[in-house]
Write a structure and sequence with these properties.
The chain contains 20 helices and 19 strands. The protein is of the alpha+beta class. The longest helix is centred in the N-terminal third of the chain and has 53 residues, at 7-59.
Length: 662
């Protein structure tokens, strides 16, 4: 018989059952209430939804319609095409990125051509390289000319591309690239728009490969209709020749053999030697001669000073070679002077050195300044002076050195270092020779008024050099390409040069007792004053030539007008450029040449932040300036030279005109 349940427990169970029943009834009531509420809201709110839809239809809100329109894949079709079927080491070819844009749509232009609009921020078309074969170098993408499109969603015209749009990507395959397959991956970004709305920006990854074959194998042009708009394609005839040109004297060195390599290095060293005679380095040579003359009595000491300066020059050029070989964005020997702060710093250092020439180091200065005081004759000072001399050489390009450096920049790191080492050895060799032969410098006056006068005159020249570099740096900071940079800094530069001439005349008349030295040195002083005055006037004036300052748009416009273009690459920090401009471009024959309406002078000034100008310099196949390139009306280069003559220019322009007429 089951045991009995106590009455209190029965009551407890009964209470729980009643409570559970009440809970179920309560939940059912809540569900009914919620259901009724939802139904009521549905019936009451559908007119509000209908009104909202009508508002959208009437006012055509672009943000809503953007999600309803077809995707950009249906609006823009993208593909790539090569200009040749295969490629060999050393070849230059072009990859085309072809965008076929649906009728009624357009895509925004690239960043360079987009115009700012107050009430709309267009998303520019971009091409970025996200991965590339190690054996290729890629230039800046060439976008087509954009044109304005009127749209409903912006107050101004939108610069855009329509229809078939082709973006060209010039590519250079280095000489040591191995046969096989090479290619690159590209990120294409764009935003497609219609007349009254824009789609969301799109990013598309593209990958394209091409076969690399051995030297000497035949390659063929393909897709010629696509590349017709890009102009004549560069020849792909592979060559191991390095071409040199000096005022019309041209020769080539074939580096496919060991003898050719030796000749190339000898030529590069000779170019480095000639750097000592450029306007950039000349002011330092007398300083070093004075320094060596102080130690001429001690042959070992003199040799040590010369060797340390030799080593300083060589170390800098090897360091420059390492940067060019290993840093992809560093491609030119003069690139350091394209950074205004670096140029200003060099000017400050040179100005500090000039104080040493005046004997101002009696005032306590930071310790590092004493290392470059010519009066100290210290080993570390000679090493620092060697580095400074090499730094000052980089704005200038000596004959033969520019072609060798440009070729070396495209080679293997070992070849690049060897070539730049040869340039450094050539530049540093005179200092080693002077130090090894003290007799060459021991006759320099070491004490007395004549010695003091030499140092004071050289100190004024150093102040002129300091004013030049500081002025160039400030000019670059405040320049806005394509407008030409300010040239007012030439007045203090030439002022110091004139002061050196005036001081030379004054002190010579005071200390010289012999009539012949008086006549010679006062004449030199008068010539310095006259040349400085003439230089300040010419270098700050507008000049006789009406230059067109380069932009890609102006270049394309001149091509469309069938003009012969004489393109001069220059910069304010390039003294060789100034020498050529004064000696060649101011010639009456050249001035008369530009009176011909079919010939247009174009100047590419890379003093400041001018990426378009630097890209054009690389496009024409050079890394250094000065440089002149003459284009025929179809855009083909008919002449290119770093050191050119008046007659070369006349002949090249006449050839370009003759070709355009046939």
């Amino acid at each position: 018989m089951p045991s009995a349940i106590p009455i209190p427990k029965l009551l407890s169970v009964s209470q729980r059952l009643r409570s559970s029943e009440r809970t179920r009834k309560s939940e059912k009531s809540v569900r009914i209430i919620v259901s009724d509420l939802i139904e009521t809201m549905r019936r009451a709110c559908w007119p509000i939804g209908l009104v909202f839809i009508l508002v959208v239809l009437v006012f055509k809100v672009p943000a809503v319609f953007a999600t309803l329109e077809p995707t950009t894949d249906e609006v823009v079709n993208v593909k790539t095409a090569w200009s040749f079927d295969r490629v060999r080491p050393g070849d230059s070819i072009t990859l085309a990125i072809i965008l076929n844009i649906k009728q009624g749509f357009h895509i925004n232009a690239d960043e360079r051509q987009i115009l700012p609009i107050a009430d709309f921020n267009p998303y520019p078309t971009k091409v970025r390289i996200i991965e590339a074969h190690e054996g290729i170098t890629i230039e800046t993408p060439r976008f087509p000319q954009a044109h304005p499109v009127r749209v409903a969603y912006a107050s101004g015209n939108l610069m855009s591309f329509e229809g078939q749009t082709i973006i060209y990507l010039p590519i250079k395959f280095v000489d040591h690239v191995q046969p096989g397959s090479a290619g690159l991956k590209i990120m294409l970004e764009y935003q497609a728009c219609a007349g009254n709305y824009c789609l969301f920006p799109k990013k598309i990854k593209l990958e394209s490969k091409i076969s690399v074959v051995k030297r000497g194998e035949k390659v063929s042009k393909i897709n010629e209709d696509i590349f017709a708009k890009f102009g004549p394609q560069p020849t792909t005839e592979s060559s191991r020749d390095v071409d040199f040109d000096l005022f019309g004297w041209t020769f080539s060195i074939d580096v496919s053999s060991g003898v050719g390599w030796v000749l190339l290095f000898v030529t590069a060293a000779f170019g480095g030697l000639l750097l000592n005679f450029t306007p950039c380095v000349l002011p330092l040579i007398p300083i070093k001669i004075i320094s060596l003359s102080h130690a001429a009595a001690n042959q070992k000491r003199c040799l040590a000073l010369g060797f340390l300066m030799f080593l300083g020059v060589l170390v800098f050029w090897l360091g420059l070679g390492v940067m060019i070989a290993l840093i992809s964005d560093f491609t030119a020997t003069n690139q350091l002077f394209q950074y205004p702060l670096f140029t200003i710093l060099v000017g400050i250092i040179i100005g500090t050195m000039s104080f040493g020439m005046f004997g101002f180091f009696a005032v306590r200065l930071p310790n590092f300044i004493y290392m470059i005081n010519p009066e100290q004759d210290s080993l570390q000072g000679s090493f620092g002076l060697g580095i400074l001399a090499a730094i000052l050489a980089t704005p200038c390009t000596a004959p033969f050195m520019g072609a060798a450096a440009a070729w070396a920049a495209t080679q293997t790191p070992a070849t690049t270092l060897s070539t730049f080492g040869a340039i450094g050895i050539g530049m540093a060799l005179p200092y080693l020779v002077l130090s090894a032969s003290p007799r060459l410098v021991e006759k320099m006056p070491k004490t007395g008024p004549a010695s003091v006068l030499i140092k004071q005159v050289m100190g004024l020249f150093m102040l002129a050099a300091a004013a030049y570099f500081i002025g160039v740096g400030l000019s670059a900071v405040f320049s806005t390409p394509p407008k030409p940079p300010s040239k007012l800094y030439w007045w203090p530069v030439m002022g110091f040069c004139a002061a050196s001439g005036a001081w030379l005349i004054y002190r010579t008349l005071r200390i010289a007792t012999n009539r012949i030295p008086k006549t010679i040195f006062t004449t030199i002083g008068a010539i310095l004053i006259g040349l400085s005055t003439l230089g300040a006037t010419n270098l700050t004036g507008k000049g006789p030539i009406e230059w067109v300052y380069y932009t890609p748009e102006r270049f394309d416009e001149l091509l469309n007008q069938n003009k012969v273009m004489v393109m001069v690459f220059t910069a304010e920090w390039c003294l060789n450029c100034k020498v050529l401009e004064e000696g060649v471009l101011r010639n009456p024959k050249i001035i008369k040449l530009f009176e011909n309406q079919a010939v247009v002078p174009v100047k590419v000034d890379i003093t400041g932040n001018n990426p378009a100008g630097k890209a054009k310099l690389k496009e024409v196949g050079n890394l250094t300036i000065p440089l002149m390139v003459i284009f025929s009306p179809n855009g083909k280069q008919v002449f290119k030279s770093e050191f050119y003559t008046v007659q070369q220019m006349l002949n090249a322009v006449n050839e370009a005109i003759r070709k355009s007429a046939t």
